[in-house]
Amino acid sequence: MARRPHGTGSVYYEADRDRWVGTYEAGWTTRGTRRRRKVTGKTEREVRRKLLEVRRQPETEAPLSRATVRTWSEEWLRLTQATMSPHSWSTTASSVRRWIIPTIGHRRLDQLRAADVRAVQRAILSAGLRESTAQRASAVLLGMLRTAVREGYTVPESALRTEGVRGGETDRDAIPPEDLRPILDVARTRPDASRWLVAVTLGLRPAEALGLTWARVDLDTGAIDTSWQAKALPYRIPRDRSSGFRVPDGYEARPLHGAWHLVRPKTRAGRRITYASAAVLVALQAWRDSPERPSSPHDLVWPDKSGRVRDPGDDRAAWYAITDEARVASVDDDGRGRRYTLYEARHAFATTARLYANDGTLTDLMGHASILSTRSYLHRDEVAARAAIEATAVAMGLPPAAPSGADGASRF
């Protein structure tokens, strides 16, 4: 017999009353205890249908005067589903349900103290996790409490002013030039060399690369529109496909297959045009014409063998295979080695491009600032962006653009 998916409720038959009963846990009471709901029917199918309908109904908010951290946090998570990106919301919900609720969920909002906020931090650090995890959970908790105040709840000022722990240093760093060159040498032997060249010499995020379509690659000019990303969106009700996907307000999403969508960042900073260097453009053209390139019904540039979105795990594995063959690795302060991550290729791009681009151009190329608003400024920055991309690629070890024409202009 198949196991019932967690969180879908319990359905059973009462022989003495000749009826089917369905129950499920529906949040929390004002005392911090579980609230259970029950439906009945003549058939199992009828009860399962009623359960699904009930679970889709919003829960009644707890009274403001007796609300606990647990009751408010569940309400707050429901509210933020409509505003946060799915990935950010999932990370936030993990902090709430793994650390905040178990540690101080029983505490009433109007009785919180600074010590309660610090208790969450201590719980995380005591579990042996990094300061950055405690810092993130603290930020989530304080943000949740400030929203509670705006919604009319009472939260003591001492709790709201509690300082969070400082985040620890990350071991993620830019790949140094002496390791970049062998990585690029190995990558250029692969049929899909363009996938890895855009990661290293253009700084594309993995989701941007996996969601890139040929329609947004101009092989004549070298312009690449990285405004869409491949993301797997969650269902409104976990594991219930009939419930549809949870798409935040103002979030543009185009379905591909299964849970995979092309999504457009909510902020203008994530919507940008970048430019392929001469070597990357050659690699893209070669990949476009390669018989080894899978055909994709979604027009994806680097799909999996079936033409669908390449699994991020497979993408990382291919990257690690390249770094292993290049025989390079990052060495921590304690002398232990580890593989370079794909995001460290993005760090390497930013570090190298900084030598050739002004601050405005670099932040545009990284997607950390808004795209230019005027045509003249756009033209001026396009020239600077192309020059920075080409110089960065050459500095990393790729061949420069070959002059074309009497004026020696590079071809893009």
Account of the 3D structure:
The chain is an alpha+beta fold and about 400 residues long. The protein is built from 14 helices and ten strands. The protein has three domains: about 10-55; about 65-160, DNA polymerase, domain 1, CATH 1.10.150; about 175-225 and about 265-395, Intergrase catalytic core (hpI Integrase, Chain A). The chain is globular.
Number of domains in the coordinates?
Answer: 3
CATH architecture of the largest domain: Orthogonal Bundle
Sheet with most strands: strand arrangement: 1-2-3
Q: What would the average pLDDT be, to the nearest integer?
A: 81
* Rounded Rg: 26 Å
- Looking at CATH, the homologous superfamily of the largest domain is Intergrase catalytic core
Category by helix and strand content: alpha+beta
What fraction of residues sit in β-strands? 5-15%
